[in-house]
Amino acid sequence: MGIFTKKKEVELFAPVTGRMIELSQVPDQVFASKMMGDGVAFELEEGLVCTPCDGRITTIFPTLHAFGMTLENGAELLIHIGLDTVELEGNGFKKLAEEGKKVKAGTPVIEVDLSYMKENNVVTVTPMVITNSSDYHIVIEAVSAVAGTRDRVMICEKA
User: Fold this and answer.
1) Gap between the terminal Cα atoms of the chain
2) pLDDT over 60 at 48, yes or no
3) Shortest CA distance to 73 belongs to which of 156, 2, 132, 3?
4) Which strands make up the sheet holding 136-140, listed edge to edge?
5) Mean pLDDT of the 141-151 span
6) Which residues contact 152 (CB under 8 A, 6 or more apart)?
7) Percentage of residues in the chain with pLDDT exceeding 70?
8) pLDDT in tens, 82-103
9) Between 144 and 73, whose confidence is greater?
10) What is the DSSP string of the chain?
11) Whole-number Å distance between alpha carbons of 65 and 81
12) How far apart (Å, rounded) are the C-alpha atoms in residues 16 and 133?
């Protein structure tokens, strides 16, 4: 592989501690039907959301409910923390990283106040999808309980 060639295969690790579920189990049709892309989702047990692999943070939404990354193979990743959380307007979230930064797997990006989410009846199911997944071969690992950035959950390979 030449020094200017993009890495073809990227391993993605759990960005959170909790339980991994299939996208089809997400109680939001946009994610469950894979309209946003292929991937997995997580039920949060702890409030720290980290980068699942090396790459660049391309966007952190102003409401802090989601962030996007470009991976080393060009894949575009979206992590959407909870469902309908855009309506919280940033309440219950704390930004820990900056847009445009190149990051390593496990870099903390957003801290979620799970008590606040519970008090406000927010569903904290967190989808992680490759938004340009039609250009990639996605392999989902067979895991359920995940410990933030220690468990590989997905492989994304350029098609």
Assistant:
1) 17
2) yes
3) 156
4) 9-13, 152-158, 136-140
5) 87
6) 11, 12, 13, 141, 143
7) 96
8) 999 999 999 999 999 999 999 9
9) 73
10) --TTSPPSEEEEE-SSSEEEEEGGGSSSHHHHTTSS-EEEEEEESSSEEE-SSSEEEEEE-TTSSEEEEEETTS-EEEEE-SSSGGGGTTTTEEE-S-TT-EE-TT-EEEEE-HHHHHHTT---EEEEEETTGGGEEEEE----EE-TTTSEEEEEEE-
11) 5
12) 21
Token pair of 126 as six digits: 């967190």
Say which residue the tokens 């904290």 belong to. 124
Kindly list the catalytic residues. 80
Name the pTM for this structure.
Answer: 0.94
Q: What pLDDT band is residue 1 in, cutting at 50, 70 and 90? A: very low
Which among 96, 95, 87 is positioned nearest to 120, based on CA atoms? 87
pLDDT at 137: 96
CA distance 42 to 22: 8
